[in-house]
Each structure stands twice: as C-alpha cells, then as structure tokens.
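Section 3.1: Structural characterization of target chains.
Under the original work plan, the team committed to producing a structural model for every single-chain target entering the pipeline before any wet-lab resources were allocated. The record below documents one such target. The sequence was received from the expression subgroup and is listed exactly as submitted; it comprises 607 residues.
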Amino acid sequence: MTETAIADHGLVGDLQTAALITTDGSVDWFCCPRFDSPSVFAALLDDEHGGRFQLRPAGTPYEAKQMYHPDTAALITRFFTPGGVGEVVDFMPALGEQATDNHRLVRLLRCVRGTMTFELVLAPRFGYGRVPHRVDVTGEGVVFGTDALSLTLHTVREPGDERLAHVQVHDGDVRGTVKLTAGQVRGLVLESGAEGPPREIRVGEVEQLFQDTVAHWRSWLARSTYRGRWREIVERSAITLKLMTYAPTGGLVAAPTMALPEQVGGERNWDYRYTWVRDASFSVYALLGLGFVEEAEKFGTWLGARIREHTVGNGGPLNIMYRIDGSADLKEDVLEHWSGYRGSRPVRVGNGAAEQLQLDIYGEALDSVFVAHRAGLTVPQRGWTALTGVLDWVADHWDQPEEGIWETRGGRQPFTYGRLMCWVALDRGIRLAEEHGRPADLDRWRAARDGIYTQVLERGWNSTRQAFVQHYNTDVLDSSLLRMPMVGFIGPRDPQWLATLDAMNSELVTDSLVYRYDPSASPDGLRGSEGTFSLCTFTYVDALARAGRVDQARQAFEKMLTYANHVGLYSEEIALTGEQIGNFPQAFTHLALIDAALALDRALGGQ
C-alpha cells in the first residue's frame, strides 16, 4: 500500500482526541488518549511501520465514496462492488469536560444491497511505532496491550451471527473477515482503557449509541445563529473546529496531525497538535460570529490561566503555544524510524518554535478578550489584574526584533505585523479600562500605542513599493498584513491600504490563492518552498470585501471552496497542482473560512 492523499480523509472525534479515516476505510491516524499523545495508528506518516485499522471489501474491486451523516461528525464510507453495496459508519461518542483514558471508536458495518465480505486489518503501533505490544484473542474480541495503554476490540453482532472468520494473528497484527447480506449490520468497537475484557455488543446497543451521537451534534449545531450564505460549508467548519477542541480545558489544537509537509519531500514538517495562543484567539471571533458563546468563554478561561501564569511567574513573554492542558513542555524530536508522508522527512514530534518571541500573539489574545467582552463575557477582576501585567510588558518590550507570525527560523527582525498587533493589544486594553473604570497605567499604554502607530506608518510603509512590507529591513510583501483593516489600524479603503492590496494582488496572489510571502526574497532559515496558505486566501477574501471589491471577493471565495475535500475539510496549504498539503484539517483555515463568509455575507447585504 501507499500513503493515501492528505485530502482523502474524513475526521471523527470525541472532543478529547480524533481519528482520520481514509476513503477506503482505513484509520491511518489516531493518537490516544489525547490529541497530543503518542500515535496508535500512523500509516499516514509511514505506510509500512505506522499502523492502521482497515475495514474494506475483501477480494473484489470496489469504488469508495465518503460523506458525513448530515449535521454531525459521524462519517460514512460507502463501498460499491460487483456483488453489492456496503457501508462503514465511523463515530466516537462525545465526551465531557472530565479528562479520561477511556475512548471508543465505533465502526458499524452495513450491507445495503447484495452481499459483501469485509476484511479487517488491525495493526496498532504504540508510542509512535516504538513500543512493542501484547495480543490476546478471545471469541468476543481482541486486547492489544502495553504497560502504558491498552486497546480492546469488541465485536458487534446478534445472537447466532457468524463470528469474525479466518482470524489470524501475525507479528502483533490481527486479520479477519466479516460476511454480510443485504440488511445485516455488524460492527467493531475499539476501546481504550476498557474496564473489562472484550465482549459481544448487541447491534441495538450500538445503533442507540449512534443515535445519541447524532443527537449530540445536531443539538450543538442548533445553537448556531448563522443564517447567511454558504451555511452548509460554514457549519461544517464549525463542527471541525469543535472536533479539534479539547473539552476538559477548551484548548483548540492547530490540527490533530503532525509532520504533514508544507512541501512534499521537504523539511517543513511540523507538529500541530498543540494550542497556539494566536490560532485559538482567532477562533473566538469566528465562534462568536456564529453564536457559540460557550466555546469562546471556555477558551477565555484557558487563555486567562496562561496569562495569570505569565504574570505570577517571571513576567517574561508568553509562550506562543502550549499543550492542550496548558503545560509548556513541547521539546522537538525527530522520529528517525519513519519515512514520512511520501518521503517527507524529518518526521518531527514536539515543536521547537514554542519559545520563540512572537509579539503579535498579545494583539490576538487581547482582541479576543475585547470581542468576547462585546458579546457579554466579562473579564473578572483577577483576570484584569493579570491582563494589566501583560500590557505593561507589551508597553515596555514591543520595540524589539522577533521571529514573527510565520515562525521562521532565519533570525529575528522588526516585523511589521508584530508591531501592528502590539498596537491592537494596547488599544484594546485601553478601551476595556476606560469602559469599566478599571485600574491601569493609561498614560503609559497610550504613549506606547501611539508610538507604535507612528513607527508602523513611517517604517512599515515602503514608498518605493507603495505598500506596507514584511519588516523594516526589507521590501518583501507579507500577507499577514491583510489584517491591518480588520483590526482597525487603517481604513479598508484608505489609499495606502488599497495600494498595498494591489501590490499583494500582483505578487502574492495566483488565481485567487495567496502565498504568505516569497521565501526566495525573504530567507526563512528553511530549505524548499511551500504552497499557497489557505488562511491567507480566506483573509484576502475578507480584505477585498471590506475594500468594496465585493465581486472579486466573491469569486475568490467561490474558487477557494473548490479546493475543499470531498467532505468539506481543508489542510494548511494548497500545492501548485491543487493538492492539499500541510497538517490536516487545520483550524486556522476553517476559522478563516468562517470569518470570510461572515464578512462577505455582510458585504452582499446579509440575506
């Protein structure tokens, strides 16, 4: 077998971890018991050594198609063979806010027409494929175990149904077949941390579990207040963001995957299974725009804890990312024994960029607090005290070189976007203090805010390029600056901004897709190139809509929708061929899609 394309996957999850399932019925990415735990199935990164859980028709050619059960996170993979039609229905019952090691991946098998024999390949590879495991097969199922984690496979059948046939165990893997005729339903449940041995589960019990899962997702989605255009793709993005949120803390992972390349065969292969202050802060605006107040409030609690730790600790800068539980140990390592997606090495686990200095995160964090405040979520006094400590730090430290939003590894620079977002942080802090009479060193904050504003206009603007540029020592353009009018630093139809937009359009935009910057003109310390960045493309749509270029914005948005995969999911980037590359699905892309849809719908006159 060969690695399935990144886009040929659907996502299921239980709000504490998630699994990617291919269009031919293979679970080829699953970490347990959390998003950032070591993998159990990782054929996506090494087809031979990563491990998988495969269910597909045996011994016959087939065509496969995949869809979500409407308005839910339950995934249906349909198989069409000369002898019949069958389905695998995958879902994970949603968990609550109590962290647990007990997770269930349910795989229902249905024969819809004719007959179908499904083949099972269950080949776990614990601890990123580095930890051997034990196997115990019983008549009711299988147990795979290590000292740290156990997985129990329960069988789903009715009394008198045939058991798994031709079960074979070889080198820790289990293979077998299940033969069904039209109308029959069987299944398998893979459970981590099970309290007892494998058991036979009745079909009715699992079908009720499916109905409960459907009801959960439809009840959650019913809270959406969005009634505008592109509602189906917007709501799919909302479900995707929810699937990537760790319920016990409210931390949003940037993606549930790691080491998927920004250039196939290249070295830009990062671990995204962590919570970026920036990404999660952006999500607050998107979620509030759809009416999901509880999710925004939950992330506010997570962010507030990080800010208080910052204030109580050494008073230095915030980390740019944390584990989903708020811890900061993200040491980067390389899995030398894995080949990587289509030979893309190194396969990195952990993220060495965690302690970079990125000044923009303060603006994104404070803007999310401000937007949440406008939506009725108040900042408690203890939280305000911590925020003032952060803002005092920003006022003292904004004017220094940093690594920038794109986490480049080519040295620190005075990035324009970092300065811009420091201006946002201080501006939002000043407004919050003034509106509520909160104690603050307003003179100090105003002086810093106004100093940033003047500096960006004087040094961030390049008169030769007639555009705002990436940093003060270059004339390179950077699409992060598309957010300038969104945060209120400059008017969306100001002549300087329109000139910048035109410059970006001529240099960073290709058929409506947008590059972050030109690595050949702005060395970032890494070899190779990358694709267009989907976050930037959706932000470009937003900027066009605000600038009054609504027809151009709509065309760009509609074109971008054609790059979604078969179930509406997006990775981080789009390659020259139109292939999705980078970690998948990416929260940044989906939250930017929501923002772009909201902005464009408003520009088109709502409904």
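The radius of gyration is 25 Å.
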